[in-house]
């Protein structure tokens, strides 16, 4: 069995002061994928640079200070690491990092990736950036799946995809149909990831009829208390790995004061 958890920390240094360190020490996950780290390894507390029981974290900071940034923590020694996905525009933007884990205990070799897809903003250059990223990344997903299948490996891309795919994936879908993150074009693109590239939304495959489970709630108003959230954090896997998924849980905080991010961790356990 292997447990993989993903969470957008909304600034790792800030999360560290609110309880992230205790959460990392207590989790039984073998791999933790982080997004929106907003720091490089030299800027985070020593306990997070060299955490006990973990291999040295792999950080991909953004070129723009205080923006984006992804990281991977693994209790299993990786056999390969990679920052970026071969994009001239985006490889220095701190939005993608991956590592290879060896086959063990009946599980295949698994490539685990942490993704922070741009959030976008309708009718602005930020939305154009998001669309360029999506186009390049879909091509990478296709070629990588073909390569890994030839190697007998599986892939799971964990992270903040910044798109709610279905009406069941956000509370107030009727009022957000023209908002970035729920645009018809974005949802259609995510459908292409599943239908054209052949990947599987692991949480949805285990909970096909569920509302949510939501993974992000705005800090404004009483969104968290009213569970007015969005499901934008995913584990999207190749079919062979998705078939091995046993459980999927959103680790929602017990109350608003207990939150150390505006996102909640999404944990999936895979087993042979």
TrEMBL record:
Site note Interaction with DNA substrate, residues: 263
EC number(s) stated in the UniProt entry for this protein: 3.1.11.2
Site description Important for catalytic activity, residues in chain: 233
Catalytic residue list: 116, 160 (proton donor/acceptor), 263 (proton acceptor)
Domain Endonuclease/exonuclease/phosphatase: 6-263
Site feature location: Transition state stabilizer: 162
List of residues binding Mg(2+): 8, 36, 160, 162, 262-263
Protein name (database record): Exodeoxyribonuclease III
Record organism: Actinospica durhamensis
Gene behind the chain: xth
């Amino acid at each position: 069995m292997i447990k993989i958890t993903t969470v957008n920390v909304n600034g790792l240094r800030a999360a560290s002061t609110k309880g992230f360190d205790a959460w990392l020490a207590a989790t039984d996950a073998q791999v933790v994928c982080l997004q929106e780290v907003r720091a490089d390894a030299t800027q985070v507390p020593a306990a997070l640079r060299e955490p006990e029981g973990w291999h040295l974290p792999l950080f991909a900071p953004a070129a723009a200070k205080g923006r984006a940034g992804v990281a991977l923590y693994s209790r299993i020694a990786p056999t390969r690491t990679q920052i970026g996905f071969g994009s001239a525009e985006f490889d220095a933007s701190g939005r993608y990092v991956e590592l290879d884990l060896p086959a063990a205990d009946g599980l295949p070799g698994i490539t685990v990736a942490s993704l922070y897809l741009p959030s976008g903003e309708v009718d602005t250059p930020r939305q154009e950036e998001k669309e360029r990223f999506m186009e390049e990344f879909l091509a990478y997903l296709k070629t990588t799946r073909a390569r890994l299948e030839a190697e007998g490996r599986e892939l799971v891309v964990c992270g903040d995809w910044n798109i709610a795919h279905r009406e069941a994936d956000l509370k107030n879908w009727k009022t957000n149909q023209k908002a970035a993150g729920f645009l018809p074009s974005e949802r259609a693109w995510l459908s292409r990831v599943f239908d054209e590239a052949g990947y599987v939304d692991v949480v949805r495959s285990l909970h096909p009829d569920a509302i949510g489970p939501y993974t992000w709630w705005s800090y404004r108003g009483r969104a968290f208390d009213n569970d007015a959230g969005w499901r934008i954090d995913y584990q999207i896997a190749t079919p062979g790995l998705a078939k091995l998924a046993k459980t999927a849980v959103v680790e929602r905080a017990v109350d608003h004061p207990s939150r150390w991010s505006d996102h909640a961790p999404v944990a999936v356990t895979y087993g042979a």
